[in-house]
Sequence to fold (108 residues):
Amino acid sequence: MSAESLERRTRNYLSNNVPQIQEHGGHFEIEDVDNETGEVTVAIGGACSGCGIAPMTMRAIRHRLPDEVDDISKVTVRRAGGPRAAVMPDKTAEMEEMEEYKDYEPPF
Fold:
């Protein structure tokens, strides 16, 4: 299997199963694919950079990609940077303490 094939399958999974990223003005980039080790690095940016629950999305991607895309052994997810990237504080811990988010799972 080629790295391009693994990259394509990763991109297809994210496009088809994590539409919230694009629907909310964000985007993702497949930054690196190591076909031999199965390690994939994904960056999320755009509106995701300013989203307080981006860490929950990142965690979901990190946990679900290896289960859903054959040959992926490890996923690293980071926020896309840049000199003007506005990053909101992580709201994950605060949300996990709120009753309405007790059983929250991103819808993908």
Summary: Helices lie at 3-17, 19-23, 54-68, 92-97. The beta strands are 26-34, 39-46, 74-79.
